[in-house]
Write a structure and sequence with these properties.
The chain is of the alpha/beta class and about 400 residues long. It contains nine helices and 22 strands. It has two domains: about 5-65 and about 365-395, Urease, subunit C, domain 1, CATH 2.30.40.10; about 70-355, Metal-dependent hydrolases (TIM Barrel, Alpha-Beta Barrel). The strands form four sheets. Strands 1, 2, 3, 4, 5, 6, 20, 21 and 22 form a nine-stranded mixed sheet that branches. Strands 7-10-11-12-13-14-15-16 form an eight-stranded parallel sheet. A three-stranded antiparallel sheet has the order 17-18-19, with no helix packed on it. The two termini are about 20 Å apart.
Length: about 400
């Protein structure tokens, strides 16, 4: 059973706040809430007694970072469990796996399946949303292009008929957060408008759209690019396609899978340079093997082989999601991509929280918000994870 932080002060770390990095910062937690986040007190409320010893209930985190809990808005599973097919225990195992890697807020993504099955699945997952284990449901497929299907069964794909989109929304009972669409298909624009009317994110992805068709979808209300660069036409100088339209429009947040497989570092740099840190959301697009290991898995009806941490369809060899966890994405962004830590925190916590409409509770270290935070060591490895005031990974003093 997870240990509860109760009344705890995290002191001495570099704390990343919405306003920037605070050296020798302090975060106070009471029960399941943050009560204070800022510079260490100079006298009143100091964390040491007159002898210089650390006060009771205080963790000395000198040499560490404290950042908000990660928010993953596109995740298909982990720990050997699938969010599309697993039972409640399986789903919770997958959720727990990602929590141990710093993801304290997670949206469960489904893959293409029969409509009746997806509707049934939505009803099942909605119960886990209602009890607080998930932050919502993301439908990736079946309303996507057969030309850019990736690891989705072509036989099960269909045009985005607004009536069928509505069927999934109704089945999710208000817990649907995002639907990925190839908006150039018949019914695509009307489906975007339907999603907007119901407060659900319309995401453009697995698309073969032209530049002009993508602009039309954005004007209709689409606000997210599903794993930018992947499963869409490449950027061309005469036919710029969806990538240019998605990068240039201030209304779009672009998802990026920073695992070193889905994106070349130059592509990630291009996205950050053109969109800016305020319009990037790091995601995992993780499948069952995340946090579990190499082997043979099922992604919907398709068989996937995972070798050296890279997931590919057994037939055809298309990349089939990732085995990424967000702590790895964070560490890679900091040590390989050399992005500012404040920009990484925006992309991995604040931006997706805002998109999902939960930024009043999570996504930043501020008084009154949920006690969701991650402790990273000097090398950006996980040293502690706190979710709603309970330790998922309890820090070890002196390590």
């Amino acid at each position: 059973m997870a240990a509860r932080a109760e009344s705890t002060v995290l002191a001495g770390a570099r704390v990343v706040l919405p306003t920037g990095i605070v050296e020798n910062g302090r975060v106070s937690v009471e029960g399941g809430r943050i009560t204070e986040a800022g510079p260490a007190a100079s006298s009143v409320g100091d964390t040491t007694g007159s002898s210089g010893a650390t006060a009771p209930g205080t963790l000395d985190l000198t040499g560490h970072w404290v950042v908000p809990g990660f928010v993953d808005m596109h995740n298909h599973g982990g720990g050997g469990a699938s969010f599309t097919s697993g039972g409640a225990d399986d789903v919770l195992k997958g959720v727990r796996t990602h929590q141990e890697h710093g993801t304290t807020t997670l949206v469960a993504s489904t893959v293409t399946g029969e409509m009746d099955f997806l509707a049934q699945r939505a009803g099942f997952l909605s119960e886990l949303v209602e009890q607080g284990d998930l932050a919502g449901i993301h439908f990736e497929g079946p309303f996507i292009s057969p030309c850019r299907k990736g690891a989705h069964s072509e036989a099960l794909l269909r045009d985005p008929d607004p009536a069928e989109v509505r069927k999934l929304l109704d089945a999710a009972r208000g817990t649907a957060r995002m639907v990925t669409l190839a908006t150039e298909l018949p019914g695509g624009i009307d489906s975007v408008r339907l999603l907007v009317e119901h407060g659900v994110i319309a995401a453009i992805g697995h698309t073969d759209a032209t530049y002009e068709q993508t602009v039309e979808a954005i004007d209709a209300g689409a606000t997210v690019a599903t794993h930018l660069f992947n499963a869409m036409p490449p950027l061309g100088h005469r036919a710029p396609g969806p990538i240019a339209a998605l990068l240039e429009d201030e209304r779009i947040t672009v998802e990026l899978i920073n695992d070193g497989t889905h994106l070349h570092p130059a592509a990630l740099e291009l996205a950050f340079h053109r969109a800016g840190a305020g319009r990037v959301a790091f995601i995992t697009d993780a499948m069952d093997a995340a946090g579990f290991g190499d082997g043979v898995y099922q992604l919907g009806p398709l068989e996937v082989e995972v070798k050296d941490g890279v997931a590919r369809l057994a037939v055809g060899g298309s990349i089939a999601g990732s085995t990424l966890t967000l702590d790895t994405a964070f560490r890679r962004a900091a040590t390989i991509d050399r992005l500012p830590v404040t920009d990484i925190v925006r992309a991995i916590s604040a931006n997706p929280a805002k998109l999902l409409g939960v930024d009043d509770r999570v996504g930043s270290l501020e008084a009154g918000k949920d006690a969701d935070l991650v402790i990273l060591d000097a090398d950006f490895a996980i040293a502690g994870v706190l979710r709603k005031g309970e330790w998922v990974v309890e820090p070890q003093p002196g390590r």
